[in-house]
Design goal:
Two copies of one chain form a homodimer.
Chain A (H helix, E strand, L loop, with lengths): L2 H19 L9 H12 L5 H12 L7 H19 L9 E2 L2 E2 L1 H5 L1 H20 L8 H18 L4 H10 L7 H26 L4 H28 L2 H4 L5 H4 L5 H5 L1 H21 L5 H16 L3
Antiparallel strand pairs in A: 1-2
Helix pairs in contact in A: 1-4, 2-6, 3-4, 3-9, 3-15, 4-6, 4-9, 7-9, 8-9, 9-10, 10-14, 10-15, 14-15
Chain lengths: 303, 303
Amino acid sequence: MTDYSAQLKSRTDYANSVIDRFLPDEKGYLAELVAAMNYSVLAGGKRLRPVFIDSVFRLMGGTDERREPFMAAMEYLHTYSLVHDDMPEIDNDDMRRGMPTTHKKFGTACGLLAGDGLLHWSAQTALKAFDYAKNEEDKDCIISAFKIFTDKSGPYGMLGGQSVDVLFTGQHPDRERLDYIYRLKTCALIEGSMMIGAALAGADKEHIDCFEQLGRCVGMAFQIQDDILDCTGNEQTLGKPLNSDDKNDKTTYVTLFGIDKAKSEVVRLSQEALRILEAARCCRQEENDFLRRLIESLVVREY
Amino acid sequence: MTDYSAQLKSRTDYANSVIDRFLPDEKGYLAELVAAMNYSVLAGGKRLRPVFIDSVFRLMGGTDERREPFMAAMEYLHTYSLVHDDMPEIDNDDMRRGMPTTHKKFGTACGLLAGDGLLHWSAQTALKAFDYAKNEEDKDCIISAFKIFTDKSGPYGMLGGQSVDVLFTGQHPDRERLDYIYRLKTCALIEGSMMIGAALAGADKEHIDCFEQLGRCVGMAFQIQDDILDCTGNEQTLGKPLNSDDKNDKTTYVTLFGIDKAKSEVVRLSQEALRILEAARCCRQEENDFLRRLIESLVVREY
């Protein structure tokens, strides 16, 4: 295992332990609701968003535990969006990450409520960051992070992208609308994660804006790579069937521009992200190297 | 019009203007999502929860605008719960307040997303209260109110009550489970509204706890009155069909104990609420009178 792989594994393990620690208890009358919420979260995933929060927080000089509630909250938020995405009204997907989707396992009523529950719980969890505030300045950092958290997830963030994607189904989007959908649906939470890491560490507005730009490039590269993997990937590695975009008659970067242009765009976006990172001149060398390697790895990922 | 009726109308008009002011704009790609969100909110309602926030805030000596974002946010939150409740997976209702439910008017995908959108938007709106904070003490009041807002709405609040109600359908609840459902599903947001009003005004823990007790009595009385109206009300006044509980084979306070016991329980709970209000010894006489009259009116309401 290279140094980077070991570090990524250690960071992902840390994110998993944090995500696990803040989950609600499955007991009493609420057992079924909470079981469905926790099932959805524990079904796995790369934990990319919490790893980004952690990584940018460290890079910008943060040291205490205030990032942990936000790391967990961001993953619960991301999971809620997947649970509702998979519902019969939206994508009607039976499998995710090699396991039955939440509504397939627990029924559609429970799927709807478990998604709602995760969205509620994500806000409740993020608020626990205030427990670590020692003074007014700390509170201001957390208030700022919380605003980013809610803005990047709502109607002008992730949920808005999802709704434009879904409510225009059947009318194929052009380049402009596809960019809009990707920017909100996929990029918003990645931008938000990086910005939250910076805000919690007390970074100035200029640096927070810089991580928004960086997150946008990474999010776009990530989404286009997803489109590519849907055509060329391995079903077992991906944990879901191939060609689902084609089957759902869905416009993607690949259907609009072809696979070669899509691949070169992923490379271009990653290089742009690395350029922004370098220009930010963050001097914690070890953290800088880790984030650089993480961005580079997203270009060649196979799941 | 009596003094009280005029005051109630003026307070409700004020709540409506605040609710309207914080709504998102219907434009660009998001027009359909936002139209569905705003349709759901503007379909009407008593605006009881924002009126409670406003009333307790004034009663406890609050004067500035920090209550307004929470008044709007609470109504958006309440509306989201109704939109998802009406969905085919849950209650499958076509009409509410004399108008088609959101998913009947905009389709089920849009109904799901508009409900999600309102939940996101409620948090974004409540956060705007920090714009009115002048010092650390103000921020602490708002952080405390925000914690109440998320706790009372999530899995251990309203959403939990809804999930126990829905996921146990077919197994008739006993008194204990019915109390649990009512306490979370209906009382939690009314308790929360009163507690938020108190917390924002800088009330001490003792007074916040007192408004939690008061809100619980009012919420219980309110829910049992709803059960009674479902049997004895007027369809046109109510804006929805009668006997829906019976049709859905639903256990309510009326089916468990009969209509006479239900009516006397509403009276008992209202008197208990008035006793708690009196014991709290809040000295703003005009506000005290208004809240007392509001609580009394809930016993005799017909819609």
